[in-house]
Write a structure and sequence with these properties.
Number of helices: 10
Oligomer: single chain
Shape: globular
Helix content: 55-70%
Largest sheet: none
Low-confidence stretches: 127-157
Structural class: mainly alpha
Mean pLDDT: 78
Number of strands: 0
Order of helices and strands: HHHHHHHHHH
Distance between the termini: 37 Å
Length: 157
């Protein structure tokens, strides 16, 4: 197995958990976002007040009408930064519940993950996410959620 595949297999559960853990839904609901609205708003909040078209283009594997129904009105219910804060808090809480913060050498893993994520952003030419971030006019990058969630592991709440 090559290094990239090995890294993906180890990090994907940390990334993918936010879609399935119970900590997210009540936080999004507390902001006035339920069901699909919470899911898509939490996924796209890093873009700022992204229009449905940008979210549809970014998550191109979903039915466009499905995404549009979920996103329309999300930013009227709550600002994107509050959604990001809720997502990061939910991720941190879930990761602590899994006791990830107790793993040996966590600081080294976090530092290496941060370096890899930042390097990936520098070499993402032609990728859909890179195009979407450019369209959104934001300097935020996809690995922001990784960095913030991992950096908050050692902090309560």
């Amino acid at each position: 197995m090559n290094t990239a595949r090995a890294a993906w297999r180890r990090l994907e559960p940390v990334h993918g958990m936010i879609y399935f853990v119970p900590e997210g839904k009540p936080r999004y609901a507390g902001l006035g976002l339920s069901g699909r609205a919470g899911y898509f708003a939490s996924q796209s909040a890093a873009f700022g007040r992204a229009p449905a078209e940008l979210v549809i283009a970014t998550f191109y594997n979903f039915n466009p009408e499905f995404v549009r129904q979920a996103v329309d009105g999300a930013w009227n219910a709550t600002p994107p930064q509050q959604v990001l804060d809720a997502r990061y808090a939910a991720a941190g809480e879930a990761l602590r519940r899994a006791r990830i913060h107790e793993l040996p050498d966590l600081d080294e893993v976090v530092a290496l993950t941060r370096r890899a994520a930042e390097a990936a952003c520098e070499h993402a030419q032609g990728r859909q996410a890179r195009k979407a971030y450019s369209c959104a006019g934001t300097s935020r990058t996809a690995p922001t959620a990784y960095r913030l969630a991992l950096s908050r592991l050692r902090r309560p709440g």
